[in-house]
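Lab notebook: predicted structure, single chain.

Context: the supervisor wants predicted structures on file for every construct in the current expression panel, including those that have not yet been purified. This is the next one on the list. No modifications to the sequence; it matches the entry in the shared construct table.
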Amino acid sequence: MTPRRYLQLDVFADRPGAGNPLAVVLDAQGLDDARMQAIARWTRLPETTFVFPPENAGASYRIRMFSPRREVPFAGHPSVGTAHVVLEAGLAEPRDGVLLQEGLAGTLPLAIHGEGATRTIAVRTPRARVVEVAETGDARLADALRTLEPGALPPALMDGGRRWWLAEVASEAALREAEPDWDAFAHLAEATETMGLCAFARADAGQDYDLVVRAFVGAPARFEDAASGAANATLAAWLHHNHALPGRDGRYTVSQGREVGFDARLQLRVDADGEVWSGGRVCNVVRGTIDWP
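Prediction complete. Output recorded below exactly as produced.
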C-alpha cells in the first residue's frame, strides 16, 4: 500500500469553514478509474482531485476530478484548489504568473497573484454560450421561479461545460430569504438536462461584494452549492453578453453559500477578449497521507 499525500481545503475562502471543501490527492500515479471514484465517494466532498505529471508539453501538471458519483470534465473550485496545492508542494512554478492545467477540458491557464495566505488563483474557464433565452411565462420554469421575484434580465439557459438556467432576482433580500422548492428544481434539471437553477441578485449598497448567488443543483443530487466557480463563470458570460457586468473594468466579487452555512467570496473577471476568469483565495484545513489499496 502506497501512502499518497492528501489535503483538504476550503476554496474561495479567507478562513476554514467559509468556502467550498475540496480533497486533493497528490502522487496519484498508479490509481485507476475505479479507485479514484472509490476515494471520491469515500471523501463525500463535492469533488476530489488527483494530480499526475503532465502528458502535454508546456503543461504544469495533469488533473482528474471526481464527484462522489462520476468523473467531472471541469469545475472551478477544484481547479483553483488543486493549483494552490501544486504550488505549495513545489510541483510546478508559474511562468509569467500562470500555471497550465491539463485535463479533460483541455489545457487551461490559471493566473496566480500574490503569495502566502493572501494569494489568489483564478482559472480561465471554458467559453460559455447562450443556448436560449426564456420567454415570459415559460412553463418549464414556472414552478422553479414561483417564489423568486424577477429582476431585470430574462431567464436564460447557458452551456459552459455544464448547463445552467440563470435567473435574476429583484433584490438581495428576496434571494437570501427564498426557500428552495427542491421538487421544482429537480424537475427543471431533469426535464431540460441541466444542473438546475443559478439565481443571482445585485448586492445591497455598502457590501464587500457586488452580486449574491445561489446555485440550486436539481440532479442527479439535490443540494445548494456552497461556492461554484463554474456556475459563476457561466453567469459572468451571460452578464457580459448583456453588457450588465457589475463592478469595474470587468471585475466583481460574488457572495455565495451564506444560506447553507458558508460565506464564500469569488472573484470574477471578464478580460478584453471576453474570456472569463473565476477565482479567489484558498485555505488549507487538513494535511496528511491517504492509504488506499
